[in-house]
Each structure stands twice: as C-alpha cells, then as structure tokens.
Amino acid sequence: MPEQESRATEYTTLASGPGFRHEIEIKRSRFITVLRRVPDEDSARSLVAGLRKEFHDARHHCSAFVIGPDRDIQRSNDDGEPSGTAGIPMLEALIKRETQPGVSDLSDLCAVVVRYFGGILLGAGGLVRAYSESVSTALDAAPLVQRRRLRICSMAVPHAAAGRLQNDLRSAGYVMGETGYGATETVLRIALADDPRAIADATARLASFTAGVTDLEPEGTEWVDVLRSRQ
Length: 231
Fold this sequence. Notes:
- With 231 residues, the protein is α+β, with helices and mostly antiparallel strands.
- The protein folds into two domains: 10-142, Impact, N-terminal domain (Ribosomal Protein S5, domain 2, 2-Layer Sandwich); 148-228, Alpha-Beta Plaits (2-Layer Sandwich).
- Helix content is 30%, strand content 35%.
- It has five helices and eleven strands; from the N terminus they run βββαββαβαβαβββαβ.
- It has helices at 41-54, 87-95, 123-141, 159-171, 196-210; strands at 10-14, 20-26, 29-37, 60-67, 73-77, 109-116, 144-158, 175-176, 180-181, 185-193, 217-228.
- The strands form two sheets. Strands 1, 7, 8, 9, 10 and 11 form a six-stranded antiparallel beta sheet that branches. The protein has a five-stranded antiparallel beta sheet with strand order 2-3-6-4-5, with helices on both faces.
- β9 (180-181) and β10 (185-193) form a beta hairpin.
- α2 packs parallel to α3.
- The model has no long low-confidence stretch (mean pLDDT 92).
C-alpha cells in the first residue's frame, strides 16, 4: 500500500548536523543532554546505543523521542530511574515545547540525558524536575528549524526564454528547484506551499510572465527546511 500522506504541512525540528549537547549540575549530579535530529526509530535507538558506549561509566542513559510530521511515534525510557521520573518528563518537554506562541510541533527529535550520580538522592519529584529541566534548557539553546511540505511544480519553456523566466520567478519570491534540460526545452521547477491556492496563484503569475503560453505542472511533494524557528 502507498504511504499515507501526512496531515501536517509543517513542523519544527533540530537543524541538520551532528546534534547538540548541553550540561547542567543539580545537587552534584551531572545531567548531560544530547539532542539529535532523527528520521526514524532505528536512528534514535542507535543514538542511545552510541552514548551508552561513549559514557559507559554513567549510571543512567534516559531517552525520549518523537518522530514524524504528525508526531505519531513517541517513546521514552527511564533506564533504571524510578518509573515515570525520567523518560516521560523528557518526552513531555519535547512534545509540549512551544516553538511559536500556542504552537507545539517539535518532531524528528531524540533527547538522551546521561546522568552521573553525585551522591545526593533527589527523590521522585526532584528527578522529574531535573530531567525535564535538562531537556528544556538544552532546547533553549539548540538551533531549531521549521520543516515545510512543499509541492514541486514544473514548466517546460524554450531554452532561449528560460533564463528570463527564471529571473522573473525568483524576483517574484519563488523558491527555485532543480532545472532540467531537454533537446529543445528547459524544465524549470518551483517549490510552493502544498495548498491549492498557492498553485492557483503561481499558475496565474506564470501566465502573466509568459502570456499564457506556458503551463504549470504539479509534481510530487518534499519536506524542506525553510527557516529558523522562533523559540
């Protein structure tokens, strides 16, 4: 069966890269938070396994992750801490995080908190606060980006007209995709919001640029990092 298209058209995640680390100390215990962008559960579990090896002498490697544009995959693990005092608070720090006022949409993100016990018991409430704070303070400083599902549309134009039309589209604010070249035509591609109105507006704009000679052909969609999220 074909994969069902997401209901969401945008969400927030960690910027691409090796990940982000942040450390706090609470009553002599060290809490090292590692955030990494992950596309699937295997990647999240691989991160946890790698950190177990890197911090092999730590007592706990607690984790939480949320995956998918619709955030339909959510997992957490206390890794030896009292049940409900680590993984769930970490997961809630991820899923309840507001990336814009009133918007909680973090996804494709795994958080691992490595704890080095400092000899002072924190109690259940203290652990909940510590693990939640560890993830929240890391997110305060982490580079977040917005991902948006864009509709790729193409247009075939004579080679001689392609350069000017491309400049006109860029000047109008359109994001250009990959250009293709045929024997007699150049195929220009633009990325639009995955919304019928956006396609209709672009079609009308294209008609004004080409006197109605060139048609806009909708193609598939792809997820694109478009801007830094407001935290």
